[in-house]
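**User:**
Make up any protein.

**Assistant:**
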Amino acid sequence: MIRWNQMPILLAAVALAALALTAHAAAEPRAVGGTTLTSGRTASLVAGVAALAGAFIGGRALARAGDRRRGAIAALVLGPIGLILGGLVVATANGGLGTGNGLGGGVVAMAVGLIGVTLGGLALARSRRGGRPA
């Protein structure tokens, strides 16, 4: 069973695998069906999951009064992973929305990753203050 402190390592490994899949994006056709899972869509999906996990863990760390530090650090690791992977997907997308390059998912992953970083930073600041509200 995977413990919470091992989750960033696991998601980083999945993110590296998704980056390897995006190397083949240039060989795929320009326009694909809406249900086809291309490498660009896979990479944006992985980026979105990492960003969403960072935002979720950061929100839980911010809401809890106990040990916030571990959750805040996990959010500060997973949020930037999603943000960077989403930015990579957006930077390497050859077409616009609907071409199967994962552009929409990359933009969403960047936004959610930024939310995760913000929540993690707030939770870390509260853990240093001793948990007193502002």
Observations:
- The mean pLDDT is 78.
- The first helix runs from residue 7 to 22.
- The chain has four helices and no strands.
